[in-house]
Each structure stands twice: as structure tokens, then as C-alpha cells.
Amino acid sequence: MINPNPYITVNQAVDLTGLARRTIFSHLALGLYAVKPSNETSANGKSQTLIRLASLPPQAQLKYWGRALPDGSRPRQGINLAEAHESAQTEGMRRLPIVQNALAIIKARQSVSRRMADLAAQSGETARTIYRWIKAYQLEGLPGLLPRWGKKRGRFTALPSALQEFVKGEYLHPSRPSPTTVYRRLVVACQHWRVPMPSQKTVDRFIRTLPLPAVVLAREGSRAWRAQAEPKIHRDFGDLAVGEIWVGDHREFDIFVRLGDEPGATIARPWLTAWLDLRSRACTGWHVDLIPNSDTIALALRAGILRFGVPRELYKDNGKDYRCHYLNGHSTVSKAVRFSPAMQAALQPGVLSRLGITARDCLPYTPWAKPIESWFSHTFPQWERTLPGWCGRDARQRPEKLSGEIQRGELLTLEEFTGRVAERIEQVNRMEHSALDATPLLLWQDAIKEIPETRALDLLLLRHKPCKVYTQGIKLFGRWYWSDDLVLHVGQVVDVRYDPNEIGRLIVFGVTGEGKGRFLCEAINRPAYSMHASREDLKRLAKRKRTARKAAEEYAGQRRVLFNEDEVLRELAEASRRKKVVNLRSRDRQPASEPLVIPRITGLERPLRQVRKEQFGRTLPPTHDQTTDGTDQLDRDALMRLLLED
Q1: E strand or H helix that includes residue 507
Q2: Which of 165, 184, 355, 560 is the most buried (most CB within 10 A)?
């Protein structure tokens, strides 16, 4: 039997390693080799030093065993054992003596099973493994004993490649078959091909090795792949200022609440609309309601502004309620549709633009782009489980205790639940954040907050709509609204602001002319007159008509051209001095190239020269000539130069 741990002499070590004799003794002095004294003595009477073969480098060991083995067991030509990894060479040297001893046992043919079991126990291996090593050694020689570590990494060898492709093609089908269905189809295929059929556990293990991105893309589609497997970026909000950008979104709570205190009251799942400051991770504003819409967005924004000030920018969801005209003001219409200037002026402004806030929409169907989604996930799911009425995200997570809580009336009311939400959000705002090394509210201590006056903010947050003023008033919600201050705005478009919860009155602003952006009046909903109107109704109607006519007459009297020559000329000179452009339009709409004929005003030329001399210190030539029909022909260009020059 071959000794598995042989010792060699110093001369043999020099031959195997290729090192000098002096170097070998140096290594012995440093303790790099394991040694033992020999039973034989040398010429000087001292015992000879023997070196353990296993302590030499793997190349030296391979060289020794290559010489010690019989010819049939030596490595084949073209195989360089030195190219194998050092750990593989070491393991091969450990296996070689075990295989040689096993071959000796087999050759002796005496108590082979018992002796092989003893050899396996001594070497820490199984008899089956030793027989496998013997087979590899007989086929390939010493290279067959080298372990093939990493050669099969990433490969599933328990299933043939052809069957792997079949299973892969069936499982990655968009119909999403189960592993059991795939195995049944594989059984039919193996019977048709007359190949050995693998077990279902083997098929299940192979399916689990398929890469997740490929499985999601093939079975669930590109949208699911974007959400679960597409590479994402990590954003750093450290360069932002506190309160610079707020991000907002809705979330439905996993909890049922009662909408009343009476028995059998309706239950529902409330929604949260919230705004989160990106720099401080503080929830600045929020609102709880049954249905999320643009009103809840505005209420959450109002709560945040009154506490933390007006943000510079909003990074919001791409839903219709966030893109509505009420918040953004813009309106997308066909290119063939053209609005009047008054209508365009009424359509443009929105709540955010009036507050000086810019808005940016996130990409559609990308919830991971909004940091508030992760804030939702770590703030509410575990907290909701501690409250009565928790129902889970879907029917599979719904607990059995929910039906009992509903029957016993243990659910929270909407008002009670809103109070619990307020406590939870305040608690999270005061918790230390790992990315900040501080609490969110701590970062707001030195921040500059621009908090507007509450009444002014409420007025800006009212809903607005462009409406035309008719002779009956403003028609909205199927009702007519009127105020005596609207008599001079009949036929014009005005900006109407209203509270959806109180539609009995409208707040009216002008959008064109001198009244642009100014408060005009408060229009009140008036009841319609019946065919059997009373005497008092007719008196009120007559009073409204008199008021309207009087306002129109006063406006015309203030704006008409006075025939006081000196006063008219002073106004013209003052307007010219302020460089105001005066447009003269002919009532007959004459072309601009033709001279404008006006009645002669006696003494006009003298005061005009006098006033111009007083204003500008020089006398100007006359600007009109008398015609044969007793009228003065006024040159348009000369008059415009007169009024516009300094």
C-alpha cells in the first residue's frame, strides 16, 4: 500500500523544487517545511533530516507522484498540471494516496468492502466518492483527481440543455403557466421524444434559477419590468434648500372608518393627500378625505403653506387631478379653436401661478420617481395594523377580526381617525432620519418662511372660471347671479371665483381693460321671476334698470369729448407730455391714408398755439386748413406728430 504522506530526503527536495541545497536548508531553518529525523544515520554519525512531501509546493508534489506512479497512471501528453489552481493541486495531492490505497485493496481481493469502508472512514470520505475518484483516475490519470471547482458554476447540470430550453419557453409564456402545468407539458414531451423524464422537484429548482428580470418582462410585460427590474438612480437632496421643492401624492389607507355614530353607519376607506419637503423629509401639509381630488390637493397645500410657508416648486403626480385647470390654469384645446383675448386672459392663471409656485410633473406610471412613495411605505403600513378596522391591502390580507369589529361598532369615525393621522405624522416629523442625522423639523428652525395672510390665501385658493356677463347677469350652476356693479361689464368676460360648498354668491374679478385683475363685485344668486310677478318684484326690476342707465350715462358723461376748447387742449398737451399715444378713429371707418374731416371749432388754432407755447416754449405752425364747405381738414400724421413729440 502506498504511503499517503511520504517523507523525502534533502537531495530529493533539491531535485523536485529546483532550488539550491543552501536555499533548502534556509527554508528548514525558517520552519517552512515539516521535517522529522530519519532512522538511519549519516557518515558523521548524525540522523538524516527528512522533509514531508505535503509541505513542498504543489509543482514539486506533482513531479514526485508523476515519477512514483506506474506508466499507465501518469498524466497524458498535452496536459500541464502546473496550470491548475494551487488549491486544486493541493486537493488532487490529497486524493491521490487515497486512490492508490483503494486500488491496492481492490487488487488484493481480500475483504474489499470492509477495507474500503475503513479507508473511507479514515479519509473522511464516502466509499461512493472513492470509487468515483478511481474511475476518473483510471480514465485521465492524475488530472482526473483535480477538482473542477467553478467549471459548472452558473450551469444547471441536473437537466439536459434541450429540456431546459423547453421548460424555459413554456414558463416564460405571457399566459403565466404554473410550474406544475409546465411539468405536465414536459412529461408529454419526454414521452414523445423517448427520453428519461426528470422529477418535478428538479424542474422546480431549474425554474427558480431563471433570472428575475427576464421572467418579469416575459410573463408580466414592460410596465412591470420597469417597476421591478429596471435600473434606478439614487438622488441626493443635500443641495436643495429647505422648502424649495415639495412632492405630493395620494394614498388610500388600509383601514375602514365609520361615517357616522348611528348603528349601521356606512363604512369606507379614507384617502390621504400629502406634501413632503424633499430636503427635510418633513410632511408639510396633508388632508384626509373619502375621495382624493383637486380640492384635497388645495387643502393639503393650504395647510402646508400656513405652517411652513410658500414653496418654490412642486414636484407632483401626473394624474388628472394634479394637472387640472384649477391648479395649473393652462387649457389644451384644438388648434382650430381660437379664444378671444378676454377668454385667454381668464384661462391662463391658476392657483399655483398666483402663488408664485412653479410646477413639475413626474413621468407617467413611475411611482418610484416620487420620494413620497417610500415615505408612505415606512410611515403607515405597520402603524395601521395597530388600529381597529385594519383590512389589509387586498382580500388576501384581510384579517378575520375585521367582521367582528364592524359588528361591534369598534371602528373609528372619520374625525377620530383624522386625529390619529395627525398624531402619527407629527411623530414621524420628530423622529431622527438616517439620511439627515437629525429630525425633519430640526432643519426648519433656521428656514425663512413666507407665510401669506390667511384670508388672502383662501381667496387665491377659491375655484375660478371665466364667465360672460349677460343682461340677466352671470349664469353658473344653472343659476343667475347679479350685482349692480356689473351693468358696465355686460358683454364682457370676467373671472368668477367661488367656493364649491357655498354657491350662493360669486366673487367677480375683471380680466380686461382698466379692471384687469381687480375686484369688481360680489354677485348674489337671485331667484327667477315668475309670470305672476308681484308689484314688489316689478319695483326692484325697475330700480335695477334705472341704476344701469344712470351708470351708463355717468360713464359716457365722464368720457365724452368736452367742447370747452381750452380744457380739451390742456388735456391733449398733458397727454403728449406724458408720451401717451392717442388713437383717433373715424366714426365712418375711413382708411388711414385719407385725411380725417372734422367740424371746424372756432378759435381752435389760437389756443392750440398758445398752449403748446406754454408747454414746450415754442410756437408751432397750424396743423389744419380750411376747406370750401366750412370745415377744417386735419392732417392725421401732423396731429400725431404734434401729440407725440417732446
Answers
A1: strand 502-510
A2: 355
The CA distances from residue 640 to 55, 238, 564, 583, 588, in Å, are: 113, 60, 21, 9, 19
Q: Which residue reads 423517448 in cell numbers? A: 194
48: three-class secondary structure by DSSP: strand
Which ranges constitute the DSSP H helices of 467-534?
Answer: none
Torsion angle (degrees, nearest 10) of CA 467, 471, 475, 479: 160
3-state SS assignment for residue 521 = strand
Domains and CATH numbers, the chain: 7-145 (no CATH), 161-228 (1.10.10.60), 245-444 (3.30.420.10), 462-558 (no CATH), 565-644 (no CATH)
pTM for this entry: 0.56
Residues 6+ apart with CB under 8 A from 147: 88, 91, 92
Residue reference for cell 385667454: 344
Phi, then psi, of 199 in degrees rounded to 5? -80, 165
For residues 247 and 371, is the Cβ–Cβ distance under 8 A?
yes
The pLDDT tens digits for 460-503 are 788 878 888 998 889 888 888 888 888 888 888 888 888 777 77
Between CA 639 and CA 558 the distance in angstroms is: 24
Sign, Cα dihedral of 127, 133, 134, 136 = positive
Indicate the SS3 state at residue 125.
Answer: coil
Q: What spatial distance separates the first Cα and last Cα of the chain, rounded to whole Å?
A: 126
Q: What pLDDT sits at residue 543?
A: 79
For residue 370, the number of C-alpha atoms closer than 13 Å in the C-beta half-sphere is: 27
The number of C-alpha atoms within 13 Å of 356 and in the hemisphere containing its C-beta is 10
Contacts of 133 (CB under 8 A, 6+ apart): 95, 98, 99, 102, 144, 145
